[in-house]
Specification:
alpha/beta; Rossmann fold; seven-stranded mixed β-sheet; 21 helices; 44% helix; globular; Methyltransferase domain-containing protein; Methyltranfer_dom; METTL25; SAM-dependent_MTases_sf
């Protein structure tokens, strides 16, 4: 079944009351009674352990649920991008309408197959590139590096040599794990590798790891260390000097918030940038993230990309439709639906923390109505303690809020009221799951806006599920290229 953009936006508008809700306000704003009555009665019969199968949108439902809920679930599944990972660069090429690689390619192993039994590291990477790199990051960088090298070859073949790139630039490179691997993979192809990061400490540490890799490989002729640059990217900045004619591919592996949008703008406006591989994240930080309700204080140093940066929407089509997504909805798009389902399956009681935090918010606002969504201490293993133990730890560094807890503990009526809230923790989990079920659709809408934006400018753009979503939830890579010089 084919759904139009209007269908997707209509569904999101229909459930804005759900996507725009904050879990922290479950009791303060009485979220449960916003659900249709038939949903309330049906969900009250569902145990938290039943939710993993319901969150697996590809699985059949073996419970009696309201037809409207089943329809919503099926529509989200049909309207969202496929998150099942591709199996190799040839499949990426087919999706991107580029020819197969010149060199023979091996299908990618699944994440479980990649791991070495003893160490848990990726068997496809040499030992020196597994050091100081978590298995999740190894999974990601190996695939991105192969895609970039393949893209250089495929683009040149598709355009009969008219368009190709000789340089890959990793933006937001952090400690440089991807760029080190890419400098090795792209060495034979003569690919230069550069990085840009705003944090000078990260850049220095990346250079130290480069030197360590050079010593481990014992031969500098096998690779060239990436050129690393420190640069704070502000609205309107260019990443590449306009006089620099070396053709480039921009890479953003989980570039945060508006940084992903900035990469796409650089690609569309800079003639020397002929390709981009962008995996976004932190969608709630789009447009500076300054539309969060009850925001208390903003760091004055976080002024790199202001609200007028238009991180969303980017396309003329979305602007004409006046498409808007709230901070809460964009934050929901970052949720890891597969990982959450796994957590529910392995330890559903651990999710009581959602109820604890919502009950604590109710207590705080009861005493201090103007104190909403305050930052509190994160409490580990909260489900192993009672609410009052959790609350004391959560407020440990907030003496200004502690009177709310002290007053509640000494008031028998308040204690009884809190206990009356806590028995409804399965409802809190159900409401959380309902919101999480919509997360793939919201992410799909955000990424559709980016694809349409590039298409409006005449560029080929494709979304590819590059990683295993259970390991790397933000697994959709936007791959775009220019087909003329």
């Amino acid at each position: 079944m084919h759904f139009s953009l209007d269908d997707k936006l209509s569904l999101l508008r229909e459930f804005a009351w759900l996507t725009d809700a904050y879990m922290i306000d479950f009791f303060v704003d009485n979220h449960w009674h916003k659900l249709p009555p038939c949903w309330q009665s049906s969900l009250d019969s569902i145990a938290p352990s039943d939710w993993p199968s319901l969150l697996d949108l590809d699985s059949a439902v073996h419970r009696l649920l309201p037809l409207s809920l089943l329809c919503a679930r099926q529509c989200v599944r049909q309207m969202s991008f496929d998150r099942r990972p591709v199996k190799g660069v040839d499949e990426v090429g087919a999706l991107c309408n580029l020819p197969p690689s010149s060199a023979p390619t091996e299908p990618w192993l699944s994440y479980a197959e990649e791991l070495l039994n003893k160490s848990g590291h990726n068997r496809a990477l040499p030992h020196e590139l597994r050091v100081n790199t978590k298995p999740k990051k190894q999974h990601e960088i190996r695939r991105v590096a192969e895609v970039v090298v393949w893209l250089s070859d495929g683009l040149e073949k598709a355009t009969n040599g008219e368009v190709s790139f000789q340089r890959a630039i990793d933006v937001g490179a952090g400690l440089g794990h991807l760029s080190r691997l890419l400098s090795i993979h792209g060495h034979d192809a003569g690919l230069q590798v550069q990085t840009i990061d705003a944090d000078a400490a990260f850049v220095r540490r990346a250079q130290q790891l480069d030197a360590k890799l050079a010593r481990m490989r014992q031969s500098s002729s096998e690779w060239s260390a990436p050129q690393r640059h420190t640069k704070w990217i502000r609205q309107g900045d260019t990443l590449i000097d306009v006089d620099d004619q070396l053709r480039s591919c921009l890479i953003g592996l989980h570039a945060c918030g508006d940084l992903s949008s900035a990469l796409l703008r650089e690609f569309s406006t800079n003639e020397s940038v002929v390709a981009v591989v962008s995996v976004g994240c932190c969608y709630h930080k789009l447009n500076g993230g300054r539309d969060k309700e009850h925001m208390q204080v903003w760091s004055e140093s976080d002024d790199s990309l202001k609200e007028d940066s238009s991180g969303f929407p980017m396309s003329d089509a979305f602007r004409r439709l006046d498409v808007r997504l709230s901070f809460a909805a964009r934050e929901l798009a970052c949720h890891a639906i597969e990982q959450y389902a796994d957590r529910m399956h392995s330890d559903p009681l651990a999710l009581k923390v959602h109820c604890y935090r919502a009950a604590l918010e109710w207590l705080i606002t009861r005493r201090f109505p103007d104190k909403r969504h305050e930052g509190l201490r994160s409490v580990k293993r909260a489900a192993d303690m009672d609410f009052w133990q959790y609350a004391k730890l959560a407020l440990d560094k907030r003496p200004d809020l502690q009177p709310a807890l002290e007053a509640a503990e000494s008031d028998p009526d308040c204690v009884a009221a809190v206990n009356g809230l806590l028995v409804h923790w399965p409802r809190v989990v159900s409401f959380y799951c309902l919101r999480t079920m919509l997360a793939p659709l919201i992410e799909s809408v955000i990424l559709t806006d980016r694809v349409i934006c590039l298409s409006e400018l005449g560029h080929s753009a494709t979304l590819v599920p590059l990683f295993d979503a259970r390991v790397s939830p933000r697994n959709l890579a936007l791959i775009a290229y220019k087909t003329n010089s």
